[in-house]
Amino acid sequence: MEKRLTNSAMLFSVGFVFMLVCAVGAFFYGVQIGMDKVEAGYEAKRQEEAAATKTDGSPYQQQDLVSFYHTVFSPYREFQNEWLIAMDKLSQGQSGDFGDVMSNLSKLALRNSEEASSYDMGKSARLGDAQVAYIRSLKLFAKVADAGADKAKKLTADKLQAAIKEDKNYLGAVKETLDAQAHYYAAMQLWAATIDPDIPGELSVPKVLGLKNWSSMPLTVKNGIVVQYLKEYNVLKPFYPQDLTARVDDFIASGQAAKMKLQTASAVIDLLLNTDAVRSGDFLGSLNRFYQSELMPQLPFFLPADQ
Fold it and tell me: Taking the model in full, what pTM does it have?
């Protein structure tokens, strides 16, 4: 009797120990699986963030936008201003010394393209793309200016102007400029999205954008839409995109859009561009009226001259 009890006790003890070992093993196995899943999750997230940093340069910093302004945008803009002044004189028939003017513009374009290359903006994809496009534009303008200097000896002012506008290098230079501008303003929108989660980082231009929807959009989004319209027009203009944005907002606020029964932002933009109704400085003239509370990077062309 006692022997049977002893054997039963031993079997019970062995069974208990076996179950305990299995339970402990299952516990640690479960813990290991859980840890593996967590580590895999963190690794996937790390790789995703690394890929995003590589492709988007995100998050965009205001300092990146400021650095781009001074090292890339300003050299390009200096050339563009001189180019447009020369083209304006040519349109007025002032072509007496135009060969020298074109030669100087070619030198300026090449010099400023080197300056725009002095700082690597490649860590931010949009800014890197904008930098490359501005440099390409300047180099193409240099070729146009060289050809213009030679043609100035043979052609009248009106024929020279027509020849420049038909030059494939000129058309390419304008396209590169508008592409660069679109990338730069897209980078501003990406920056704004890191500050305000209600601002989309990317937004394609709607086929139909009603004036009510336009008016509800933040400034950086409106500017992003405007640069896309300017690309479609493929014309070099002296004003900034925000100047056109301000004119659209003023056109709506003043009741002119309603009076003319214009119902979409594209219709207003078409009218303003076709009537040459936008000027440099329109944005700063409307700054206090429309944009005091708007989020915008601290770039010189968004600030009054006294700041």
Answer: 0.80
Question: For residue 159, how many other CB atoms are within 10 A of its CB?
Answer: 12
| Rounded Cα gap, residues 3 and 95, in angstroms | 124
Partnered with residue 210 across adjacent β-strands are 264
73, 126 in Cβ contact below 8 A? no
Task: Please list the ranges in the chain whose pLDDT falls under 70.
Answer: 1-59, 95-96, 306-307
What type of residue sits at position 117? S
Contacting residues for 53 by C-beta, under 8 A, at least 6 apart: none
Residue with tokens 């929108």: 189
Which H helix or E strand runs over 232? helix 219-233
Q: State the Cα–Cα distance between residues 114 and 23, nearest whole angstrom.
A: 71
CA dihedral (150, 153, 155, 156) positive or negative: positive
Per-residue CA distances from 67 to 63, 196, 219, 226, 307 (Å): 6, 22, 21, 23, 18
- Tokens 């000027």 sit on residue: 279
